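Hey, can you fold this one?
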Amino acid sequence: MTNNLQDLFPTVLSQAREAVRPGLNTCQLLVEEIAVTAPGQLRPRLEHIMGRKGKRVRATMMLLIADTGIQTETPESLERKARVAAGLEMLHLASLVHDDVIDESELRRGIFTANAEWGNKMAVLVGDYILSKSMELVVSEPDRRIPAILSQASSRLVAGEVLEMDLAGKLDASYEEYQAVIEGKTASLFEASGRCGAILAGHDAPLVDACGELGRHFGITFQIVDDLLDFGVGAGDLGKATFSDLANGVITLPLVLFFADCSTADRVKMTELLQSAGREEPGAAESAKNFLDQHGVFDRVLESAMGHMKAAMGILDRLPTGVARNILAEVCNAMVHRSH
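Sure. Predicted structure:
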């Protein structure tokens, strides 16, 4: 992947955010209101956590899909879309707070994590508060499918995280197990974004389902690219330590594909390298990466990502033509080449 391609995704995503700026701005105001109205010492803690400006990929996708409808924008419809976007972003944020506790992370995007600042117990409680507020944002949504979708996404997200922990360090994890993990921990929120956006656009039930599939394929691709970035493939300024998943024994697609058809000798060698990487022995993680590269694993992983993205692009063709659909296509095309 060339540097030009790696630079493409943040540029395209920035343009996508500008296209839905009114919705994102209202979404941000809703999130900030949650922080400033929180009781006691929750307020400064939430302000600290929400000071990390994320990419807002899920909210942006949801708002773009919502804009493929034909409704006239009103203050009421903008508020409605923004509340759903904020619910999705808060749900994602809660998962990150809990992830940092599980992974014992100290930094996220250059800012101390909640667990590093206040300890695990307080971080879990703060994450729980954010999770409850994400649901509160959509509890009055007139289309009752939307709160149900967010609730189900939350359950699937946690189930995916649990399965990932159960599979940690399991070298013979199957592709099906890997797929179940990422469909829960990553794709579930993107699928929810697609479904909610289609509902807000006024699309019929088959197209709502199709947009859910669009989000699912996008989310799977997003996670596969993350797996590559953990090995430093296409990596730029990642905001997380390269090889962190490798050191923590987290199941990733490069290792799943390698162990699925490697020789006994290669299995022994890679197992030894992973054990050394887990002990953070100098050079072990880099040696594991080089060994995978020699076996062409990273090309196969990128091919898998491209397959899911092509499936997403096929679904995009079913949406009404217009600016929003064109921007979604650009985001999809650029996403497989992102560098962070």
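The chain has one domain: 3-335. Let me know if you want another pass with a different chain boundary.
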